[in-house]
Specification:
Elements: E1 7-11, H1 16-27, E2 31-36, H2 42-47, E3 56-60, H3 66-80, E4 85-88, H4 103-131, E5 135-139, H5 142-146, H6 152-172, E6 178-184, H7 197-206, H8 215-226, E7 237-240
Parallel strand pairs: 1-2, 1-4, 2-3, 4-5, 5-6, 6-7
């Protein structure tokens, strides 16, 4: 098992890509902290993971709130004895065209998708250094590389994550920590439920694989970057988008 005895925090782990990653990391032997703002339904979800009950726990957290993050990270380290992997997967959208975007919606996305990653990473770094082979995986987006209509806030946050990824790779590499990012394309999660079917059909047409991505496509990439197979990959942005806009 590629993550045997490793301790992983997966933010936004209660749903979608995060939940897929939680299950995959557990199957690969990791101890997993599900860190999410939404606690509703988690008791039932954890019951479904009873096979792994000694290796999984839920921690409610608001990644935009530093004190909440500090409590979560300390709680994970206390529960599992350390931290080896941080997957910064949590994210929100508040889409609107520039002329109609509310300042509070712009700020909310920045607070969660960018500042939240800063909070989680800064809080976890001492434990990752102690691990000696820490892994930080940030979730950027194709929107962070290419922009996307109606997503000024989201694109800005995801582009910022790329800059932070490369900076942290330079700062933390000497301490044995790798820092990488994924740039997913359109993935079949609740985030795209509000996208009109006609638009999704157009998206499929510009993806060379002619389909939307699935949560497991991203979770598998998380697993690779978290594993020893990726121990010499640092400061990269891996596009997991099916070949969109090639």
């Amino acid at each position: 098992m590629r993550l045997e005895n490793k301790v992983a925090i997966i933010t936004g782990g209660a749903n979608g890509i995060g939940w897929e990653a939680v299950n995959l990391f557990l199957r690969e032997g990791a101890k997993v902290a599900i860190a999410d703002f939404k606690a509703e339904g988690m008791e039932a979800r954890l019951a479904g993971l009873d096979t792994y009950r000694d290796r999984v726990a839920f921690f409610q957290v608001d990644v935009a709130n530093r004190e909440s993050v500090n409590q979560m990270v300390a709680g994970v380290a206390d529960r599992f004895g350390g931290i080896d992997i941080l997957v910064n997967n949590a994210g929100i959208t508040r889409d609107a065209m520039l002329s109609k975007m509310k300042p509070e919606d712009f700020q909310a996305v920045i607070d969660v998708n960018l500042t939240g990653v800063f909070h989680c990473t800064q809080a976890a770094v001492p434990y990752l250094i102690e691990s000696g082979q820490g892994r930080i995986i940030n979730t950027s987006s194709a929107a962070g590389l290419n922009g996307n209509i109606g997503q000024t806030n989201y694109s800005a946050a995801k582009a910022g994550l790329i800059g932070m990824t490369k900076t942290w790779a330079k700062e933390l590499g000497r301490k044995g920590i790798t820092v990488n990012a994924l740039a997913p394309g359109f993935i079949e999660t609740s985030m795209i439920e509000s996208v009109p079917e006609q638009l999704l059909a157009q998206v499929k047409n510009i993806v060379s694989l002619q389909r939307l991505g699935k949560p497991e496509d991203i979770a598998n990439a998380y697993l690779f970057l978290a594993s020893n197979e990726a121990k010499y990959i640092n400061g990269t942005v891996i596009e997991v988008d099916g070949g969109i806009m090639m």
